[in-house]
Amino acid sequence: MYLLQDRQTFAVSAENPTGMRNSGTKARDCEKLNPCISISPGETVTLCDVDGSGIISHMWFTGDIGHHFILRIYWEKEKFPSVEVPISAFFGCAYDEILEDAENRYPYLNSAMLLLAPGRGCNSYFEMPFRKHCKITVENRGDTNKTLYYMLTGWLGNLPENISYFHAVYHQAHPVEKGKAYVVLDHVSGKGRFLGVNLAVGLNGHNTCWVEGEVKAYIDNETYPSVCYTGTEDYFGGSYAFGNDVALQKYQTYSGLYTGLYAILGDSRERYNAQKRFMLYRFHVKDAIYFDTAFSMKMDNLGWTGPRYDDYTSTAYWYLDKPAALPFILPSDFDLIMR
User: Fold this and answer.
1) Considering the chain, what percentage of its residues have pLDDT values greater than 90?
2) Interval 173-214: pLDDT, tens
3) Per-residue DSSP letters for 152-189?
4) Phi/psi of residue 233, each to 5°?
């Protein structure tokens, strides 16, 4: 942090749409001119269009955050996005109800990679390098005008030869097919690193345990997984149904640097309530998962009584040696289950 670098900072916002030097607001002291933008129904707005080599180091969004805003990121002038996720899902809010949790509090996600501050302050600290060009867009798939505040910060400068490109994709199963594993990520080809996932679980059916499903990561097209966690709560750093099966017999949220169960929606007073919804995340920063040719990950939806049919929604994050098309097609706005 204290070493001087030959780099040029850029910070793109409604007040400085180009992000370049000496191009920001012309407002006087204590005056606002253009703090946000309004995006019409069906409109796609380019927020960032930067030439050169550099890194996106921080993204911040607020405003009418919800499933209707679709975030897309394109690397090196490719026609396909390497990131295509509803903004709220990208930041761990797979359900749009992010203003109040089961305890009548603002839920907050406080990790090293993502920060969801009380009241819809969405922050990303994923480093996203590019060699020649970066473009970031937001589409409004809603039926009314929506307001967006944003700040996209990074720098331009020399990069090492062995950079990899950031990718993120949304997926859902409503519900998970009973007896079948939920697919977090599949058909990823190339050399790279799996970075992590955020997951939302909406319980369906019988009121019982839902966390017995194993999490399995398959490296380089192997038949059996190299990485296998014996329970869903174990993968997300917890144990014994996140505290629901031990002394207090109730769930308790937590938010750490790399993993957490940061929010529970629904009535928290019942030990098992069929209408509960859980929001979790796990980032493989200190326990990196590398692959040379291919990667996939699955999660079983399993409880004490056997296979379940809960609603699963996820955003997976990974780095790849080249920009690549995404393995899942984004559902229509009507078919998204983030409501």
Assistant:
1) 66
2) 989 999 999 999 998 999 999 999 999 998 886 667 888 899
3) EEEEES---TT--EEEEEEEEESSPPTTS-EEEEEEEE
4) -70, -30
Cα–Cα distance list, 95 to 29, 53, 117, 165, 198 (Å): 39, 35, 16, 27, 12
pLDDT mean across residues, the chain: 89
Mean pLDDT of 210-225: 94
Q: Specify whether the CB–CB gap between 191 and 292 falls below 8 A.
A: yes
pLDDT of residue 101: 60
Report angle CA 106, 182, 140 to the nearest 5 degrees. 50
Torsion of CA 136, 199, 322, 80, to 10 degrees: -50
Give CA–CA dist 140/138, Å, rounded: 7
Q: What angle do CA 80, 81, 84 make, to 5 degrees?
A: 135
The single-letter code of the amino acid at 192 is G
Q: Residue 132 to residues 49, 51, 74, 92, 277: CA-CA distances in angstroms?
A: 11, 6, 11, 29, 42
Taking CA 272 as the corner, what is the angle to CA 270 and CA 277, rounded to the nearest 5 degrees?
95
- pLDDT at position 108 is 84
pLDDT(274) > 80: no
DSSP state of 114: E
Structural domains in the chain, CATH included, are: 8-22+34-320 (2.60.120.1390)
3-class DSSP assignment, residue 212: coil
103 close to 42: Cβ distance less than 8 angstroms? no
Percent of the chain with pLDDT over 70: 87
Is 283 within 8 Å of 160 (Cβ atoms)?
A: no
Token pair 């019982």: residue: 208
Which residues, other chains included, contact 198 with Cβ-Cβ below 8 Å and sequence gap of 6+? 89, 92, 94, 114, 279, 280, 281, 282, 314, 315
pLDDT(31) > 80: no
Tokens standing for residue 36: 């946000």
Half-sphere exposure of 110 (CA within 13 A, CB side): 9
